[in-house]
Design goal:
The protein is 3% helix and 33% strand. It is built from 1 helix and 9 strands. Strands 1, 2, 3, 4, 5, 6, 7, 8 and 9 form a 9-stranded mixed β-sheet that branches. The relative contact order is 0.23.
């Protein structure tokens, strides 16, 4: 199978109603290399670059998880755009976005969940087109 474990996907498909950064850019901690006294930053296993995380509010009213973390591997911490006038949070979009499925067994029943990674973050375009679902003709019409 030619499908990699990181599935390329567009920002508009993951966040059709937009996304807002709700916290600062944080270092992702490598729990295996860290000690109680010293925290060690995680590095991407493919690129070797330090890994950063941004907590993002998904504005889609039908989203199962309202806040998700998107990890970015970059030499320097990503810079968030400023919030628009009258908004408490900056509107963001991600470049080089990928989704990785995994089984979340932390609840009462295991469920399919997604981990998101990106190569960069930028301010979202206010006129971004929201993709519409595909409509199939009715049978017998």
């Amino acid at each position: 199978m030619a499908l990699s474990r990181h599935i390329p996907i567009t920002n508009e498909l993951v966040f059709p109603a937009g996304a807002y950064a709700v916290g600062a850019v944080e270092q992702v901690v490598d729990f295996e290399a860290s000690t109680r006294e010293q925290k060690v930053q995680a590095h991407d296993r493919d690129s070797g670059l330090p890994t950063w995380a941004i907590s993002v509010f998904d504005a889609d009213p039908e989203a199962r998880s309202k806040v998700v973390r998107v990890k970015i591997s970059a030499r320097n911490p990503p810079t968030l755009p400023p919030a628009a006038a009258g908004s408490p949070f900056p509107s963001v979009a991600f470049e080089g976005l990928t989704a990785t499925p995994y089984v979340d067994a932390s609840g009462s029943r295991p469920r399919l969940a997604w981990a998101f990674r990106a190569t960069a973050v930028r301010g979202a375009s206010p006129k971004a087109q929201v993709p519409q679902p595909l409509h199939r003709p009715e049978q017998g019409a």
